[in-house]
Amino acid sequence: TPSLPEGGGWLMVEVDGTDTDDAMRRADALIADASATDSVVHAAGPEAIRLWQIRADGAGLAGRTADGLQAWPGWEDSAVPPEHLGDYLRDLQALMEQHKLSGLAYGHFGDGCIHLRIDFPLATTPDVMRAFMEKAAALAASYGGSLSGEHGDGRARSELLPTMYSPEALAAMAQFKGLFDPDDLLNPGVVVRPDPLDANLRRPAAAPMMASDGFAFAQDGGDISSAIHRCVGVGKCRADARDTGQFMCPSFTATRDEKDSTRGRARALQEMLNGGVVSDGWASPELHDALDLCLSCKACANDCPTGIDMATFKSETLHRTYQGKLRPRAHYTLGRLPQWLRLAGPFARLVNVLGKITPLRKMGLFAMGADGRRSLPKLATKPFRRLRKNVIPTHRPTGPKVVLWVDSFTDSLSPEIALDAITVLEAAGCDVKIAGPGICCGLTLISTGQLTAAKRKLTNTVKVLHPYVAAGYTVVGLEPSCTATLRSDLVELLPRDAAAKAVSDQVKTIAELLTSLDWQPPQLDRKLLVQPHCHQYAIMGFDTDQKLLEKLGCDVEISSGCCGLAGNFGMEQGHYDVSVKIAADGILQKIDASPDREVLADGFSCRTQITDLDGTSSRHIVQLIAEQLKE
User: Fold this and answer.
1) pTM across the whole model
2) Low-confidence ranges of the chain (pLDDT < 70)
């Protein structure tokens, strides 16, 4: 978080200049002339960018009060002459306290314009909204202000216009509209002959939908209605990730269709819970159509300022729709991939040979519910579960205690990564143990909504890992999506399991562990193009990995946005074209523009997508470090 001055409110001022030094001198002069109680100056750079990003995300961030309650638009655009702003804000605060309301104010204070979302209790006593807004309108008008300083009156404030305009002025507006729209077809119910401000509110129509045997939705008190109504249509998900550096929302970036945005999907869920146009509950075709192209990448959990995690909603929807029913074919194959990988292990050579025969490969993929244009991942002829009997890490009683968790993908498809991880951890002085084979985070079960089975998997995983954690060991994961699952989904699916919480708190990526140690890694001096895994970006963040790479002496370029495969998504029938477009507009474009850079991708999905579509090989960070150590 950027450093801020002391106080409960902040005025952000941008000062320009011919260069940085000139701008800093101007800023210091401004502060010297001001009467601020405290101040901080940030030169142009990362901290200033983060501050302005917080301001840009204001509409979403203000969607929750300091107490975590849902805050709503309605009185979010009032303005008064700047010389009356202080008095107006004090009176407005008193009015909110009178109605037991709160909200976080931001806006264009220099213009006297205030954006304020307020925690109207729409789910319980929606009439509070009307009582407050009628008085707030009179208050703003008493200072010579406007109900709508920037965004327009709309349905929220048109009924209140008599506080600002005389009956004659309003009649003139009605006559003017009548000249162009005698049948009142254009925007009826707004400004002229307005609908009541509290008519057609969505939230009061949504009955509580409490969590049951799926996700806990703990941040919203277990109420799915409250969770999905976090989305108030800010629309940051409609931005192009290629321009913003964010990862949300890859499917909308590819299709440019509103229903494929996080906002569009949230609206479909809201309509389903409100009993609106989506009328068949969790199984509604409109809902499944909206969720179909969601990659479950979780990027919205990080990028959306309201905190919407559409991957969780998609998983919950699939869980409730298909519980006890016949599922799509891909749920039984791709959704249970770790199980199939273990069964296929003894026949790895045969499976790999058959996978190279095009007709047989396409038949196999079709049977799996996968797209025939995909390749079949090459199985390791010796998975890590067979190699581990010959791997005996050196015991270091005084070293950091680490238990290496080898996930199903690394075990069956990339066992060399696990071997290199042991090399790196030992070089860093760690006392390494290897977690028992067969434990699984249940990621593919979660992404296909098989939450009952996922809970069983996670319960078993906690039983295996908790004794290590209780003995002071840190759990290190290698596959970012699996590591993120233990960090986030684990406690949402097993919310009352104290052991699960303890395990989740002690799970780290290899970069998080290595950067916490007093260890000087070898210098790689390489130019890298890095594709962060979406789940890592959303849950753990990539800053620690970037710091480690810079400490390794690497010149790093980050590819923003999803690779497009996203686990089972890009494999499933009907998703191939969107998956390829996401990759073509993202990582593949970066590869073409940076032919001198090695590609680094810790996620198995990312490496698969890059190789499938471009033929370029990519590696895990432990492979780069281990290679240098061996040299």
Assistant:
1) 0.89
2) 241-243
